[in-house]
Recover the amino acids of this structure.
């Protein structure tokens, strides 16, 4: 099974086929409306506006698995994002990205790109300290660690990068630009 064989549920209950994105660069991101990383929506929207016409798409999957930071329903989440960040990219139905109830899309992404660390800096240290309390072995499993983990898929459907929420958004943009 490959990336183009997968689907994800839209907010209206229909399935969004990843095969619709063949030939495009895609960012898949699990998001939250009440997280310290929520302001990344601004940067994600900026990248979308800059590269969408050149074949860039975003699959935004709101997720409430991390400290309950996405409590609203799909409509409330969409309204929040449009009101606060003027998002234009589509959002999918709120879903789980870890555990037995994780959607297939995230199971696949994690199988292709595991966790490689949070990098350096204050946010990276804070995330590591927090996760050590939750899962002492967090470094050795591919699970999504927190909201705003981003996967980049190239025009051929290969998962080429995983960016943890602590990653500099300029690095994320640089990766996208290199694939456009």
């Amino acid at each position: 099974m490959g990336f183009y064989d997968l689907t994800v549920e839209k907010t209206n209950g229909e399935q969004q086929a990843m095969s619709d994105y063949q030939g495009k660069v895609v960012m898949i991101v699990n998001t939250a409306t009440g997280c310290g990383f929520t302001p990344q929506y601004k940067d994600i929207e900026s990248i979308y506006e800059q590269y969408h016409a050149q074949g860039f798409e975003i699959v935004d999957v709101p997720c409430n698995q991390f400290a309950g930071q996405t409590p609203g329903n799909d409509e409330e989440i969409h309204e929040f994002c449009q009101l606060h960040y003027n998002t234009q990219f589509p959002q999918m139905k709120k879903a789980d990205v870890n555990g037995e109830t994780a959607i297939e899309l995230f199971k696949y992404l994690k199988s292709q790109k595991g966790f490689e660390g949070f990098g350096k800096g204050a946010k990276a240290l804070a995330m590591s300290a927090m996760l050590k309390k939750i899962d002492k072995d967090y470094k050795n499993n591919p699970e999504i660690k927190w909201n705003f983990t981003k996967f980049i898929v190239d025009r051929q459907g290969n998962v080429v990068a995983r960016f943890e929420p602590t990653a500099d958004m300029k690095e994320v943009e640089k990766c996208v630009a290199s694939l456009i």
